[in-house]
Specification:
By secondary structure, the protein is of the alpha/beta class. The chain has nine helices and six strands. It has one domain: Rossmann fold. Helix 2 runs antiparallel to helix 4 (106-115), helix 5 runs parallel beside helix 6 and helix 8 crosses helix 9 (233-244). The two termini are 32 Å apart.
C-alpha cells in the first residue's frame, strides 16, 4: 500500500452563539432557514467517515473502490459538477482522527482514500459524530456515511450524539463490515436515532453497497425528492429504510 498522505485539517469551527431576545427568536429562525435553503440550492455536503483500524485491512482496498464509486454518483444522475461537497474523515492508531476540507474535486479525495493504510487502535466513532455536529452547526451537513466493523465505546454516549444529529437533520448511513453483534446493535441504534439507515457490507454484497452509496450521494444533493425522482431499486430501499426506521 502506498505511503500515507496527511489530509488537510477540517477548517470549520463552531461559531459562538448570538445573544437573542425572546422577541427576536422568530426572525433568527427565519434567517437560519434561509441559510439552510441556500446551502441546499448550492449543493449538498456529505461527510464520509472511515474506520481505518487494523481489523479492516483484509477488505480495505475493496472498500476504497466501492466508496470511490459514490463520488461519481451525482454526475451519473444529471447533477452539476461539484454539486456534492465531500469531506473525508478517518480514524486509526492511538487517537489519530483526521478530516479533510469539503471539496468538489472528488478525484483528490479518492487518491487520498486509497493512500491511507490501516493501523491498530480502538474505534473513535464518538469523535466522528461530535465532528459532524460541529460541522453542521457551522454550515448544514446533509448526510454522514460511516463505514466500519467494530464498536468499542459507550453506546449511551454515541446514542446521544446520534439523536442530536437526527434533530439537526443529519442522517447517519451506517455500512457495517462483518457480523460483530455488539457493533451491529450500536450501528443500528445510531442509524435509527439519526433517522438514517443501516446496511451490512461484505464481499458478497459489494455491488449492492455501491448502489446504496450512490443513493446516499443523490440524497445529499437533493433529499428524498431526488431519490423518489430517480426511482431505482436502491433508492426505494433507502427511502423505505429511512421512513420506517427499519434497517436493511
Amino acid at each position: 500500500m502506498s505511503k500515507d498522505k496527511a489530509p488537510l485539517p477540517a477548517k470549520s469551527a463552531m461559531k459562538a452563539p448570538e445573544k437573542r431576545s425572546s422577541s427576536g427568536e422568530i426572525d433568527a429562525f427565519l434567517r437560519q432557514a434561509k441559510a439552510v435553503a441556500a446551502t441546499r440550492t448550492a449543493g449538498g455536503r456529505l461527510i464520509l467517515a472511515l474506520d481505518a483500524t487494523m481489523s479492516r485491512q483484509p477488505t480495505w482496498d475493496m472498500a476504497c473502490a466501492l466508496q470511490a464509486e459514490m463520488f461519481d454518483a451525482v454526475g451519473q444522475t444529471g447533477g452539476k459538477a461539484g454539486a456534492l461537497g465531500v469531506q473525508l474523515v478517518y480514524f486509526r492508531g492511538l487517537g489519530e482522527c483526521q478530516a479533510s476540507k469539503f471539496v468538489g474535486d472528488t478525484d483528490a479525495l479518492k487518491r487520498l482514500m486509497t493512500s491511507i493504510s490501516c493501523r491498530g487502535g480502538n474505534t473513535q466513532i464518538g469523535k466522528v459524530l461530535s465532528h459532524a455536529l460541529k460541522e453542521t452547526a457551522a454550515s448544514k451537513v446533509d448526510a454522514l456515511v460511516y463505514i466500519g466493523d467494530a464498536m468499542e465505546e459507550q453506546l449511551d454516549e454515541l446514542a446521544a450524539k446520534a439523536g442530536n444529529l437526527g434533530l439537526r437533520g443529519v442522517p447517519v448511513f451506517v455500512f457495517q463490515e462483518g457480523r460483530d453483534p455488539i457493533a451491529e446493535r450500536a450501528f443500528k441504534e445510531i442509524a435509527r436515532l439519526s433517522r438514517g439507515a443501516w446496511f451490512r457490507f461484505d464481499r458478497n454484497s459489494a455491488a449492492t453497497l455501491a448502489k446504496l452509496l450512490s443513493a446516499v450521494a443523490v440524497f445529499a444533493t437533493g433529499g428524498l425528492k431526488a431519490l423518489e425522482a430517480r426511482g431505482r431499486p436502491e433508492d426505494r430501499l433507502m427511502i423505505e429504510s429511512m421512513r420506517s426506521g427499519k434497517t436493511g
